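Anyone able to model this chain together with pyridoxal-5'-phosphate?
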Amino acid sequence: MSLTHDEITRADASVAHNYHPLPVVITRGEGAWVTDVEGRRLLDMLSGYSALNFGHGDKDLLGVAHAQLDRLTLTSRAFHHDGLATFCAELAELAGMEMVLPMNTGAEAVETAVKTARKWGYRVKGVPDGRAKIVVMGGNFHGRTLTIVSFSDDPDATADYGPFTPGFVRVPFGDIAAARAAVDEDTVAVLVEPVQGEGGVILPPPGYLRQIRQLCTERNVLMIADEIQSGLGRTGRTFACDHEDVVPDVYVLGKALGGGIVPVSAVVSRADVLGVFRPGEHGSTFGGNPLACAVGTAVVRRLRDGSVQQRATELGAVFAGLLSELPGGAVAAVRSLGLWAGIDLRERTGRDVCEGLLRRGVLSKDAHGRTLRLAPPLVVAEADLRWGMARLAEELAQGPEAA
Ligand SMILES: *Cc1c(COP(=O)(O)O)cnc(C)c1O
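re: yes, here you go
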């Protein structure tokens, strides 16, 4: 006998309050749809912040995971296992790179990229010890570890967590002059989300990523693209950087890399960059474990022929059309790329609209007060996408009272 919604909400007393979930208790998922404990079907238009790009319960990915579970799940990196080299080689090839350092969560991969850049700065660029500087962007979100929140400008992410890790300089996202002015001879990297997901799906001005690439090349600085949320098909390309034909020095990947099954993250770069690590200088008990590698390899293979990306582009055009038809009285601005959108609301909070959408059968998430963000699974049926957007149009047209 499963618990009812009320019983589960009461049991939440023992769950730390670091999240404020919508009042829904999910028990099953299939494709773009989930079922709650009361048997209601809901369209998932968040996709676990892009961790579920391939939807819930994908048969191929689950098949690979089940087979691997029956064979070998964990060895630690004290030994080789027969899936690691394949995963790293195939992921490197997908990214047009040479080397992969596998981790588990996104935050760990960002930490790894920061450590990589500093070590590269001291060993390769020749920055004096202890002086390495990394340029980051205003409004960034790169995860929750202490070093990462050290360069966040979100008060919720930083309050009461000091003292913080030094060595970061923040400049406004999209302002190339500010980035240029912030780079000096001690700068080892510029860390950028090609699209700021948690910030509200903020797109940089056209040409910005190319200018960052050029700046990094000119000043011998690593361009690190955090594609944890924007990468692996979400925007209609393998990487969001691809929209500007930009190849960074370092990709940071996560979320969808785990196929919605296990946490898998990675730093992907050239051998002259990731080659700075020697045995014992960095590691993770679970990073690159056999289950993670099996699922990660299946995800890479899924993306190899470009059809997932193509579908995201085609459905993205439908999505953009539907977004442009949302009631103008309720919407101040809309940004979208592929199957990813941020909708700035005129009067209501994002949370309020999410609650209304939930009553209409759609899961979504707010970002920073007045923004609603949508990221349906890339496998969503066009008819379902249209259905979900019709619910949003109703919700925005009729407001909370009518629900
Ligand atoms: C989610 C996210 C992270 C952190 O990933 P976790 O797996 O939650 O640690 C880092 N960067 C970006 C851009 C993200 O969207």
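The mean pLDDT is 96.
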